[in-house]
Amino acid sequence: MYLGRSLLMSMILTIISTFPGHSAELVMVEQVGCHWCERWDAEISHIYPKTSEGRQAPLRRVDLRDLPDDITFRSPPVFTPSFVLVQDGQELARLEGYNGDEFFWFLLAQMLKDNADQIAVPQ
Questions:
Q1: What are the beta bridge partners of residue 27?
Q2: Is the pLDDT of residue 13 over 50?
Q3: Does the predicted TM-score (pTM) go above 0.85?
Q4: Of 104, 97, 101, 40, nearest to 112 (Cα)?
Q5: How far apart are CA 2 and CA 87, in angstroms?
Q6: Are 122 and 55 in contact (CB under 8 A)?
Q7: CB 8 within 8 A of CB 15
Q8: Which pLDDT belongs to residue 10?
Q9: Contact between residue 69 and residue 80 where contact means Cβ atoms under 8 Å apart
Q10: What angle is formed at CA 87 by the lines to CA 82 and CA 90, rounded to 5 degrees?
Q11: Residues 26-67: tens digit of each pLDDT
């Protein structure tokens, strides 16, 4: 009996963990052939998930020409890369372009700080 309940609880927790959380995400809008996207990939992409910023707002990549329906952008993205801070499918802030790692980290930290009261803390 105990084993059955334990197994059932484990299955429920596994199913729940597959649903998207209510934490923020950083949506990178990119397109094929974007030099600045490639530069961001080379300088930041491998580090980002390991940072506190990456844990606070995990990265989601989307194509400029195939934007997802589950995000409400304040205005359609035009430039690549664009980094859009999203909470519950709503755009909170945006960083357009990439001009090196120092600018990226500084502006991202500012964006997260400015929207801290709206961002759910990951568990």
A1: 60, 84
A2: no
A3: no
A4: 104
A5: 39
A6: yes
A7: no
A8: 45
A9: no
A10: 70
A11: 999 999 999 999 999 999 999 999 999 999 999 999 999 999
- Please give the radius of gyration of the chain, using alpha carbons only, rounded to the nearest integer: 17
Instruction: Give per-residue burial for 93-114: e unless 16+ CB within 10 Å, then b.
Output: bbbeebeeeeebeebbeebbee
DSSP string, 57-114: S-EEEEETTB--TT-B-SS---SSSEEEEEETTEEEEEEES---HHHHHHHHHHHHHH
| Residue keyed to tokens 């974007």 | 34
Contact of 25 with 58, CB cutoff 8 Å = yes
Q: For residue 6, what are its two tokens?
A: 């334990």
Q: How far apart are CA 17 and CA 121, in angstroms?
A: 16
DSSP state for residue 3 in the 8-state scheme? H
